[in-house]
Amino acid sequence: MAIVDITVIPVGTGTPSVSEYVAEIQRVFHKYEGRVKYQLTPMSTLIEGDIPLLLEVVQEIHEVPFQKGIKRVCTNIRIDDRRDKENTMERKLQSVQDKL
Amino acid sequence: MAIVDITVIPVGTGTPSVSEYVAEIQRVFHKYEGRVKYQLTPMSTLIEGDIPLLLEVVQEIHEVPFQKGIKRVCTNIRIDDRRDKENTMERKLQSVQDKL
Amino acid sequence: MAIVDITVIPVGTGTPSVSEYVAEIQRVFHKYEGRVKYQLTPMSTLIEGDIPLLLEVVQEIHEVPFQKGIKRVCTNIRIDDRRDKENTMERKLQSVQDKL
Amino acid sequence: MAIVDITVIPVGTGTPSVSEYVAEIQRVFHKYEGRVKYQLTPMSTLIEGDIPLLLEVVQEIHEVPFQKGIKRVCTNIRIDDRRDKENTMERKLQSVQDKL
């Protein structure tokens, strides 16, 4: 199980606000309901699932600003993939809190 | 006002678990209580404040694994700095939710 | 045409050196000879091509440390995707140098 | 000795091209001539030196688009800091090539 942390920056918007693109991206997840878990943070969107499916979601999210007429998109992705034990968003937070 | 999203990876730990380092990093924030706002997510730590202070915190966090004997650290930082209006973690989330 | 900038960090190696994994990753590209252009920098590997193929390569590269027995891998990816004009590694560098 | 890999994205430019900002950033390095080593790649700028100085350079580079009237800047930084042996850009590349 892996967690992907993704942020998509539309370039050439003409305005500093990008929240309309981020909102549109959240709608992509309705399509994947029940197949991936996701969470919006103030800096990115976190997605939990298996790598092949997560990369499919990444590709779809990356396309969103293009569909809205943007000509350049810079996407940044962090993958945390652990295979010796269950690697969920909930468990990772718990593991840190247990040590505080 | 800027937001920094930071993740610190100790290299050469001998074990896949890194939560003890993440917990230690959370303790750094006690020192900055009231000067920076911070939030732990399953993938990183978010910090809100002015850039010079945030980079001071970044440097201190980056040192944590070295203090625990690690010889190599890979740190990844995203900065979101907006100067035409108040750019807080709370406001960014709200701005997306208003558009859903 | 897009450019992907990828760095793969094996976690739990027991040693700070990771060059054997980076070397193994370079071998993955032999398989994609003629289909993607790639370049090794001191900090990452750059790959040029179309997004679906690049994400296929990303997935394969990300698997390399697992094949060598590592249990956790942290991969970081930046995608620069521009669709109003040809976006190649060579052209990007040239475009900056023209302005110096 | 550490290596920093930095990319600065101006948000709200009105055009997909950002090379004028990247060119301006290269000029910042003239000021640090002899104190940091740097290298432009098609995806980012690499800087080699000690962490406190590198973070000073990071802050200065991050300011460049604001000085040109941009209201929001997204900066992405990777730090690779190794303290058991000399960690230079040249040596890292050599270490991979020796294993090919």
List the helices and strands and how they pair.
The structure is a homotetramer of 100-residue chains.
Chain A lengths: L1 E10 L7 H13 L5 E4 L4 E5 L1 H17 L4 E11 L6 H9 L3
Antiparallel strand pairs in A: 1-3, 1-4, 2-3
Describe this structure in words.
4 copies of one chain form a homotetramer. Chain A is of the alpha+beta class. Chain A has helices spanning 19-31, 51-67, 89-97, and strands spanning 2-11, 37-40, 45-49, 72-82. Chain A has one domain (2-97): Alpha-Beta Plaits, CATH 3.30.70.930. Chain A has 3 helices and 4 strands, in the order βαββαβα. In chain A, strands 2-3-1-4 form a 4-stranded antiparallel β-sheet, covered by helices on one side. In chain A, α1 (19-31) packs across α2. The first copy, chain A, is elongated. Chains in contact: A-B, A-C, A-D, B-C, B-D, C-D. Chains A and B meet through β1, α1, β4 and α3 of A and β1, α1, β4 and α3 of B. β4 of chain B pairs antiparallel with β4 of chain D, so a sheet runs across the interface.
Count of β-strands of chain A:
4
Shape of chain A: elongated
- How far apart the termini of chain A lie comes to 25 Å
Order of helices and strands of chain A: EHEEHEH
The biggest chain-chain interface is:
A-B, 32 and 32 residues
Q: Return the CATH architecture of chain A.
A: 2-Layer Sandwich
The first-level CATH class of chain A is given as Alpha Beta
Contiguous uncertain segments of 5+ residues of chain A = none
CATH topology of chain A: the name is Alpha-Beta Plaits
Biggest sheet strand order of chain A reads 2-3-1-4
Structural class of chain A: alpha+beta
Oligomeric form? homotetramer
Helix proportion of residues of chain A, in percent? 25-40%
- Radius of gyration of chain A (CA) equals 15 Å
Q: In what range is the share of β-strand residues of chain A? A: 25-35%
Count of separate structural domains of chain A: 1
The chain-level mean pLDDT of chain A equals: 95
Largest sheet of chain A: 4 strands, antiparallel
Number of helices of chain A: 3
